[in-house]
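Entries read chain and fold; for instance:
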Amino acid sequence: MDDLPKCAADTPVGVELESGKLYHWCTCGLSEKQPFCDGAHKNGTEFKSLKFEVEENGEKWLCRCKKTKTPPYCDGSHNIS
C-alpha cells in the first residue's frame, strides 16, 4: 500500500465539536466517516487515527485532503498544488 494518505476531499468540513470529548481524526483518507476514523486503516496500512480533544465547544474546520501541517485542522494546504 502507498505510504501517502488518500485525499478524501479537496475541501475541509465544518463540524460541531464538544470540549472534553475524545475524537479520532482519519489520517489515511480511507474512512467512510470523514473526517473521522472508522478503522479502515487497519486493512493493509500503517496509519493510525489521530486522537484529539477541543478546549471549547463549537464549529471547527477539519482537513480531509490529509496535507495539512496542523492536523486535524485545515490550514489551506488543499489550495497548494
